[in-house]
């Protein structure tokens, strides 16, 4: 991993570590995100309850997610805890590092394409990016959303172009697609107009919604988005519109495809 921070972590910070030594009452671990920093995990901070053998919980070279308890900068001591990291914190930390490794691999590919050492490329990029962002992949996400221009950040134009193109190709989120069928039926004299207004109202909910006429009062609906939450929210709005369509002589049905 190329990503390294200087200095010391903060109290309560969640850090990725690698077990280096195991003693009867303590575990020593290297802080992988910090240069030349290691910490100690007392047996009481490995797991709640009585521990007979630490090797039942950790092993040398195993990567673990820990919480920083105390830092003695004068003596260079860092106390860590394994048991005080909850499942959400562990998952978020590992997800962050997974995305960061993906960002580093992208830069390695760019360096190979430009026939330059990855260390040179990484140093040039990180020296600018880390002034604004905690992690490289967070900057890449802003490139995808159009909120970051690497040239304006101070990156050389050719390098910025190569990285931007690679980021847009690899980091752009995949669209999720929800499909289904809508049936509209009415016996009102102005039924055609009522159906037309309902369909227009549905299409106005979001640009991510597409309708296709199938015949006999059936319409295919397709919702495309980058996340399920906004897509589901739009479906609820559509259902509300369909509920208003219903009366004594008018009915509507929204049926999602089973693979959704």
Mind sketching the topology for me?
Blueprint: E1 14-23, E2 26-31, E3 38-42, E4 63-72, E5 77-81, H1 87-114, H2 118-129, H3 136-145, H4 150-153, H5 157-170, E6 176-186, H6 191-204, E7 209-215, E8 218-225, H7 228-245, E9 250-256
Parallel strand pairs: 3-5
Antiparallel strand pairs: 1-2, 1-4, 2-3, 4-5, 6-8, 6-9, 7-8
Helix pairs in contact: 1-2, 1-3, 1-5, 6-7
At the fold tier of CATH, the topology name of the largest domain is: DNA polymerase, domain 1
> For the record, what CATH class of the largest domain applies?
Mainly Alpha
Question: Helical element count?
Answer: 7
The structural domain count equals 3
- Which shape, going by the Cα principal axes? elongated
Give the distance, in angstroms, between the N- and C-terminal Cα atoms. Answer: 37 Å
Number of strands: 9
What Rg is obtained from the alpha carbons, in whole angstroms? Answer: 27 Å
Look at the structure and name the CATH superfamily of the largest domain.
Translation initiation factor 2, subunit 1, domain 2
Low-confidence stretches: none
Q: How do the strands of the widest beta sheet line up side by side?
A: 1-2-3-5-4
Mean pLDDT comes to 93
Tell me about the biggest sheet? Answer: 5 strands, mixed, barrel
CATH architectural grouping of the largest domain: Orthogonal Bundle
Structural class: alpha+beta
Helix share, percent: 25-40%
């Amino acid at each position: 991993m190329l990503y390294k921070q200087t200095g010391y972590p903060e109290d309560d910070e969640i850090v990725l570590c690698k077990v280096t030594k195991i003693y009867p009452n303590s575990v020593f671990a290297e802080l992988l995100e910090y240069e030349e920093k290691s910490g100690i995990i007392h047996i009481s901070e490995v797991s709640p309850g009585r521990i007979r053998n630490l090797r039942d919980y950790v092993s040398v070279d195993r990567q673990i997610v820990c919480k920083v308890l105390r830092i003695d900068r004068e003596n260079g001591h860092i106390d860590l805890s394994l048991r005080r990291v909850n499942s959400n914190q562990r998952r978020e930390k590992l997800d962050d590092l997974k995305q960061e490794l993906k960002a580093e691999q992208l830069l390695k590919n760019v360096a190979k394409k430009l026939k330059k050492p990855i260390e040179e490329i990484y140093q040039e990029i990180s020296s600018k990016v880390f002034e604004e962002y905690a992690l490289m992949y967070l900057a890449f996400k802003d490139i995808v959303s159009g909120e970051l221009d690497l040239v304006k950040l101070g990156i050389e134009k050719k390098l910025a172009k190569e990285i931007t193109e690679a980021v847009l190709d690899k980091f752009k989120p995949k669209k999720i697609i929800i499909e289904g069928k809508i049936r509209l039926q009415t016996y009102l004299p102005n039924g055609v107009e009522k159906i037309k207004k309902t369909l227009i109202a549905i299409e106005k909910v979001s640009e991510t919604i597409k309708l296709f006429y199938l015949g006999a009062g059936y319409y295919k609906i397709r919702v495309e988005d980058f996340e399920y939450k906004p897509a589901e929210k739009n479906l609820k709005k559509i259902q509300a519109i369909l509920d208003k369509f219903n009366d004594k002589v008018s009915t509507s049905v929204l049926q999602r495809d089973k693979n959704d």
